[in-house]
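Practice record 12: protein with 1-O-phosphono-alpha-D-glucopyranose.
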Amino acid sequence: MQVKKAVFPVAGLGTRFLPATKASPKEMLPLIDKPLVQYVVEEAVAAGIEQILFVTGRGKRAIEDHFDISFELEALLQEKGKNDTLREVRDIAEMVNIFYVRQKQAMGLGHAILCAREFVGNEPFAVLLGDDIIDAEKPCLGQLLDVYRKYRGPVLALEKVPMENISSYGCVRANGITDRIFEVTDLVEKPKREEAPSDMAIIGRYVLTPEIFPILERQEPGKGGEIQLTDALLKLSKDEAIYGCLFEGIRHDCGDKLGFLKATVDMALKREEFNTEFEEYLRERLCRRQD
Ligand code: G1P
């Protein structure tokens, strides 16, 4: 069965990025000139997703406005003859069908996914977390979908991270099927470094099947008192095979200030309209610091 639906949990409070996220959603922080969430929506669309559900919460209206038609803005751009910008702005609203549901309480990622149950129905679906911006030739979700099509089971995006950072992630133990594809045999949410089963971290892209819902429904709170998707996946892995994919591409943790800064520099160096000048500027600043 084709994967046409994706769930975007966006109810998080963005505490790692305060004070910028005090009154505006972290998903709307701009990487150069596009909000983070737009990069992730574009990744989903490029992978063939046709319907997106935002699991949203209080203070997230800017996301809805961003993907809606802005009548006044479009009229103004038309009047001024700014046709390229008009097209760009309109495309955002026409890119994909978007649905919204509110997660009334911040009870964790697993709980957010459970809020998508009716939208998902009885189909496989994707989950994309907006903090992880993945710069890849083939969209990361597309890489996961290739694995799903071949192995017909849930697939998690994996990345090897330095052991001193492993406690920031869900961590897996996994057996290699190929050099990039694994069968996951154990999962732990944000383990202590000495208890981590490996250096392989779960990154914010998943292909899941509806079998996860009855497990999530009964899932007890785990790490941080939250209903954890990782814990539910561990239970599911006892009954059916779960796969991991070491994706190709560069991942930026944009929910973190330093990660966001690195992503901005990286993306700016790729933008033809100003990359030469920006690179010169960076070089000059670095030279001055060394003096
Ligand atoms: C969530 C997941 C975690 C995963 C991470 C990837 O954690 O619970 O397993 O490794 O996303 O970004 P969060 O960063 O939302 O706390």
